[in-house]
Amino acid sequence: MLEVQDLRKRFGDKVALDGVGFAVQPGEMFGFVGANGAGKTTTMRIVMGVLQADSGEVRIEGRALTGEDRRRFGYMPEERGLYQKMNVADQIEYFSRLHGMSATAARAATAELIERLGLTERRASAVEALSLGNQQRVQLAVALVHSPSVLVLDEPFSGLDPLAVDALAEVLKDRSASGVPVIFSSHQLDLVERLCDSVGIISAGRMVASGPVDELRDSEGRSVLKVVVRGAAPGWADGLRGQVTTDGGRDVLTVEDGDDQEILRTAVRAGTVEQFGRQRPTLAEIFREAVA
Ligand SMILES: Nc1ncnc2c1ncn2[C@@H]1O[C@H](COP(=O)(O)OP(=O)(O)OP(=O)(O)O)[C@@H](O)[C@H]1O
């Protein structure tokens, strides 16, 4: 398990991190979300040892992280760094050799990632000749090629087209299923909701919510009742404490609390009920509430 404990960091007067903590289990995919400037990159840099925390600790398997541990991590930094003139295959292979892989293993791992990340046709191109999205794929291959023990990825999905997003999501799911803790930051909350087991929401350097995505979405008082009614007379829902909007000639009533069965009876009397059920909030809704 990778544990981030009570990290604090200032830059001059600016408090960037004010007690950030979370844990990522082996085999767990952890989505790190927060507004611009919230502290995600700073946290990940501290995890990777690129920055020193003022206080707090990063632990693995119950002990403080060492440089040796970090060398086995895979990291995609915010400031991307590739050799512009080197071709794609040579580049990925070069980084895998830096991580101590044999030439044969490096070649095999490079070939696999080139194929999985959709770079086959560009394998002989220099990085500088690639589109930004393809450069990003190479950067990801470099972070993944040495079969890291932990993955720390700063906005790995930004700038990727939907096919590349799917390809990367599959690779990350495979790595996580093989027992690797995966942390990635993203502003694409639908993607985080779909992919991650757990999330941490950071706001102004503090964790404002964290835990399994399902638990956050299921927690009490968070679901809303949604009723879609066709052909109801205006004002039919006036006695219910909810909001009515119209969508394609139907009334859509959302109610946060109330007697579900009573609401259903009222809706049935008013018109044709096309939909009735409780809806869990999306991660995007939880995020907005948490950082408000
Ligand atoms: N080297 C630095 N010197 C001064 N301030 C810094 C430095 N690095 C980060 N900060 C400040 O610390 C805060 C957290 O920044 P950080 O880059 O960690 O946010 P983030 O959540 O990654 O944002 P984004 O989503 O925009 O990438 C910001 O206010 C930022 O301006």
Secondary structure layout:
Blueprint: E1 2-11, E2 14-24, E3 29-34, H1 40-48, E4 55-60, E5 63-64, H2 67-71, E6 74-76, H3 88-98, H4 103-116, H5 132-144, E7 151-153, H6 162-177, E8 182-185, H7 189-195, E9 198-203, E10 206-212, H8 213-218, E11 224-230, E12 242-247, E13 250-255, H9 260-270, E14 272-279, H10 283-291
Parallel strand pairs: 3-8, 3-9, 6-7, 7-8
Antiparallel strand pairs: 1-2, 1-4, 4-5, 9-10, 11-13, 11-14, 12-13
Adenosine-5'-triphosphate binds next to strand 2 and helix 1.
Question: What is the residue-mean pLDDT, rounded to a whole number?
Answer: 92
In angstroms, what is the radius of gyration? Answer: 23 Å
Give the helix level as a range of percent.
Answer: 25-40%
Tell me the β content: 25-35%
CATH superfamily of the largest domain: P-loop containing nucleotide triphosphate hydrolases
Number of helices: 10
What does the largest sheet look like?
6 strands, mixed
User: Strand tally, please?
Assistant: 14
Fold-level CATH name of the largest domain? Rossmann fold
Structural class: alpha/beta
List of distinct ligands in this structure:
adenosine-5'-triphosphate
